[in-house]
Amino acid sequence: MSEKEEVARSVEVSVAFHGERCIHSRNCVIDRPDVFVPNVKGEWNHPDRATADEVLEIAHNCPSGAIQCSRSDGSALEQAPVVNTVRVRENGPLAFRGELTVAGEAKGMRATLCRCGLSQRKPYCDSSHVAAGFEATGEPATEPSEALATRNGPLNVAPQRNGPLHVTGNVEIISGTGRTVDRVTDAYLCRCGHSSHKPFCDGTHAKIGFQAP
Asked: Which end of the chain is more exposed for a tag (fewer CB within 10 A), N or C?
């Protein structure tokens, strides 16, 4: 997927907004409506109204990774998390946090990926689950797992053609309430919306003829 970005800069920070990844969680416009001004024509992104640390906090609260920030000289402002996670959203997408590569491209530290099978912007969520009334628990059963020797590092998500998300790297799968569901280094996560073992793939995509790049 080719992504467009809008970039706004202040003396301290550069903010890139990727509209095609936005799931309209509205954290940005609720937390700092002076920086991200809702429902206006023209310029709406004003990083000059906040410090670099405040802008970074806004970025951290954006689950989809639509908001990315760096220092004005291009150097890194946001650092990789100490623990890589995939949070299972109730009736919604999979929210990844880590040093992400998605479909072979570096994608920053955050992304929300479709698990209902209906997004028009796969592998990313576009909120189609809401209109479709998708139902899938955010509190899947806890799987037996050992503590990972390393909890961070690169996290690769490779969407399989007409199949699941193949996730490799150290990652903890977390329920919506913060409970650890599983700890894995290699897993296949459902994105057709029909697995009976969500968030994991159980091969149902092949039976129903799921199609996705």
From this structure: C
